[in-house]
Amino acid sequence: MASISSCFLLYSSQDVYPLPEMALKGIFGTKASSPAGTTSGSSNEKAPFDKEQDKGFDVEAAGGITAPANDTDSDASITIGRQIELEANNAIKYRTCSWQKTAALLFSEYICLAIMSFPWSYSVLGLVPGLILTFVIAGLVLYTSLTTWEFCMRHPQIRDVCDIGQMLFWNQKWAFYVTAIMFVLNNVFIMGLHCLVGAKWWNTITGHGACTIVFAAVTAIVSFAASLPRTFNTLATLASASAGFTFVSVILAAAFSGADGKPSGYPNKGPLEVYAIPPSSTTFVLGMSAFMNISYTFIGQITLPSFIAEMKEPKDFPKALWAVTICEVVIFSLVGGVVYGYTGSNYMTSPAFGSISNEVYKKVSFTFMVPTIIFLGVLYASVTARFVLFRFYGPTSRHRTGHTVVGWATWIAILAVLWVFAFIIAEVIPFFSDLLSLMSSLFDSFFGFIFWGAAYFQLRSEKYGPSYWRTRGLKGYAGFFFNILLCLIGMLFLTAGTYATVQSIIDGYKADGFGGPFTCADNGFPVYGHCVQPYVLEVSSNIQLFRQIADIEVSIAAQSEYHSKVITKLFGGNARLGCYGLAVTIFSLGIFRDYLYNEALAQQPTHPALLSPVIKYSAIPLFLTGNTLVLTSMWALGVTGTYLGDYFGILMDEPVTTFPFNVSNSPMYHGSTMSFLATAIWFGKPAGILLTALVATAYSVACKWEDPFTSMIYQKREEERAKGKKSL
Q1: Alpha carbons 557 and 256: distance in angstroms, whole number
Q2: Which residues is 97 bridged to in the sheet?
Q3: Cα 392 vs. chain centroid, distance in angstroms?
Q4: Which of 79, 233, 580, 584 has the fewest CB atoms in 10 Å of its CB?
């Protein structure tokens, strides 16, 4: 990759310019170059990967022309509008995300497990410098993210950060390939990290109930299944749930830290040590690691071009960006400060869940982090798989825009390869976490800072000319030198950050702190006694999988059936038989789920408050009401109505408005939840109430997934009926 000279010491092949004209005429030239797969507005030269040109595809008509230097935002919006227009008849539409759904994706990316490493960073840097750095880094990332958005608005043909990499570095093919390698490696390593974190959760809640390799593999398989949706618009619902669960998790962790009054292991290491400034034990390597830890949590610009490329109105992206940045600063600083204050430097773990002394509190708060452990890996897998898929199939390919067997087979194969590779590298490399930090130092220096300093220079020179920094007065000078500073900060990450990480790896080997490849060793948080047996959380994960992931995956299968009729074809073209087959599958999973639930409760202790006659016998009407809702809803809908027959084309003549649908919009889900709760109360099991809350949340996610699609099916039928009446 380019060195620091990429930022401000470039030359032109024909002219030599004094700084800064030299920089602006070179890499930051006056006209934007086109990324792979598009052509420049003033050139007929064929670009790499431009398969549509070979097929006679009109790139300009599809919005693939780079906006000229004097284009306005409105011109870019017209091009985006043209892209949306051309997608109108596609089965898979990409530019469909509202700014709210894009905000959900951003929240899921940033509101994540890394929040729980902020207390450790504050313990190394001191609370005051740590909080200051949190605000400063948040401001820098907000600024560079707005630059990213501005660059994408000026060049609406951009699909991902690899396109930007080529445009910034002389429109050279090698720049695209190098950026692509960095992009894929960065994302796959993050996926691998989440395989390991998933194994850490499994080990923590089961007391190392199986080999860590098995737990990592299970996490990878579940993540692969959740990665199947093709568009960000579809993933946005899962993203909202992920961010919501994470928020609950970190707030619970902060509250539990205060409720405990003392951290895990207290008082073995003496009284709590809380510092406003860096303690004397902070070395350069530790301090740099803490600084980079804060920075890496904020840096996520690598995905922004991909998100913007799927927005209906990308001009609204700053709304999503401001919303997530404000929440980031509040949550990161609040959780980091509170947990550090109650834990101290000498009892700190990273992530800070390990510092919670009460095992129930620790496991409950960590369990709420499970959706983001899964989903963040899913998000990076989806971004990467989309990049690869778009290299195979061009904008007009039916395999890219429709539900074809080849298209879906390619998508599934790409995801499978990515997750297998992520799992293998996470297990093979004994110092994987440090290697991930090394990759972050190498890649985030560019994706977090250097790229966007360079993008600023190109944008301003396009709009105001190569001498903009002088003609715009103080504002021009300030912008120029500030973005030079951004490039230098990127170089700090590339140099000092890399040094600190390499030194950490060396220290780890000296201390014999690394295990071997494919180790079964326990990587969970240490356990200091139990008052709720870990088996309950093991089974809760199964129930969550059956009611959150399995329900959603059944819905995905049903939606796929609506588009491609895969299940119908498996049953010889008979849609009704296909629906019955799906019904048997769902019913069988439900029986197995109920078995797991009862097995879990049998292993758990009771609570005296739940054993009083009044509480115990209140479960009877609750159970009867719940089962009444379930059975009457099945009777009203019939087999095909209950088990997603709408997706098979078996539609009801009119909506059901009689009982129980006149008292509940989702009587089956609500009734099932009531039955779970009644069972927990009858047996006096507090753990059952926790599981009921998880199941209720899973049902809510399933409703948000299913209801809009079902409404679309019936709306489409009404439109067809209306057209039929007009024709008569």
Answers
A1: 40
A2: 311
A3: 24
A4: 584
| Banded pLDDT at 430 (limits 50, 70, 90) | low
Amino acid (1-letter code) at residue 573: G
| pLDDT of 163 | 93
d(CA 597, CA 587): 15
AA letter at 686:
P
CA-based end-to-end distance of the chain? 67
- 612 or 185: which leads in pLDDT: 185
pLDDT, average across residues 448-475: 86
Mean pLDDT of 100-108: 94
- Express as a percent the part of the chain with pLDDT over 90: 30
Band the pLDDT of 7: cuts 50, 70, 90.
very low
Report the b/e string of 272-302 with b at 16+ CB within 10 A: bebbeebeeebeebbbbbbbbbbbbbbbbbb
- The contacts of residue 714 (CB under 8 Å, 6+ apart) are 646, 651, 655
- Residue 612: how many CB atoms within 10 A of its CB? 11
Residue pair 376/242 in contact (Cβ under 8 Å)? The answer is yes
How confident is the prediction for the chain on average, in pLDDT? 78
Residues 6 or more apart whose CB falls under 8 angstroms from that of 67 comprise 32, 41, 75, 76, 79, 154, 155, 156
Could you give the CA distance from residue 349 to residue 688 in angstroms, rounded to a whole number? 30
Token pair in block for residue 712: 């679309």
Dist CA 187 CA 425 (whole Å)? 12
Annotated binding residues for S-adenosyl-L-methionine, written as ranges, equal: 624-626, 706-707
CATH of region 82-430, choose from 1.25.40.10, 3.40.50.720, 1.20.1730.10, 3.40.120.10: 1.20.1730.10
pLDDT band at 610 (very low <50, low <70, confident <90, very high): confident
Tell me: the pLDDT tens digits for 343-354? 999 888 888 888
* Residue of higher predicted confidence among 520 and 99: 99
Q: pTM for the full model?
A: 0.65
Longest C-alpha distance within the chain, in Å? Answer: 92
The distance of Cα 521 from the centroid of its chain, to the nearest Å, equals: 28
Bridge partners, 113 (sequence order): none
Transcribe 428-459 into DSSP letters: H-TTHHHHHHHHHHHHHHIIIIIHHHHHHHHH
3-state SS, residue 266 = coil
DSSP 545: I
Q: Which of 162-171, 318-327, 717-726 has the lowest mean pLDDT?
A: 717-726
CB 709 within 8 A of CB 234: no
Short-list 306, 316, 17, 334, CA closest to 183: 306
Say if residue 28's pLDDT is above 70.
Answer: no
Residue position matching structure tokens 């948000």 = 704
Q: What is the mean pLDDT of residues 68-95?
A: 64
What's the distance, CA 171 to chain centroid?
Answer: 30
Q: What would the DSSP string read from start to end of 491-502?
A: HHIIIIIHHHHH
Rounded Cα distance, 308 and 111, in Å: 19
DSSP collapsed to 3 states, 38-56: CECCCCCCCCCCCHHHHCC
What is the token pair recorded at 371?
Answer: 């959706």
* In the chain, domain spans: 82-430, 541-727
Task: Give the pair of three-digit tokens for residue 491.
Answer: 């170089």
148 contacts: CB under 8 Å, gap ≥ 6: 164, 301, 304, 305, 308, 452, 455
Q: Which residue shows structure tokens 């709408």?
A: 646
| Predicted pLDDT at 557 | 60
**pLDDT (mean) for 609-631:** 82
User: Are the C-beta atoms of 303 and 383 separated by less than 8 Å?
Assistant: yes
Cβ 241 vs Cβ 699: under 8 Å: no
pLDDT at 544: 40
Could you list the residues known to form a binding site, using ranges.
624-626, 706-707
Question: How remote is the C-alpha of 714 from its chain's centroid?
Answer: 31
